[in-house]
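User: Um, any thoughts?
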Amino acid sequence: MPSEVASIAFSFNYRSHEIRLELSHALLKISVESDAAPPVTVMVDGNRAELVAGQTMDFPLDRPASVQGARGHGARVLRPALTDGGD
C-alpha cells in the first residue's frame, strides 16, 4: 500500500457472511458482522483462524516488504483466504 494511504476498509458478502476488512501498514483486521451465519474460517499468511458472528481478529503485519509494487514501492503480498470450514 502506498505510504500516502494510511488505511483502507471495505465490507463484502461471502456465503451469507458479511466480512469487513480493515488494512493499515501495520495491521489487517478481519471482522465477521453477520449474526445468523455459521463460523467462517480465514487464513492469513498460513495462519488459520475461525471467526464467529461479531468477532474481530487482528493480524499484525510485521514482516518487511517482500515484493516491489507499482512505482517501486515495497509491497507485502497478503493472500487472505476464506473457506467454508471443510478441507
Remarks:
- The CA atoms of residues 63 and 72 lie 18 Å apart.
- Confidence is low (pLDDT under 50) at residues 64-79.
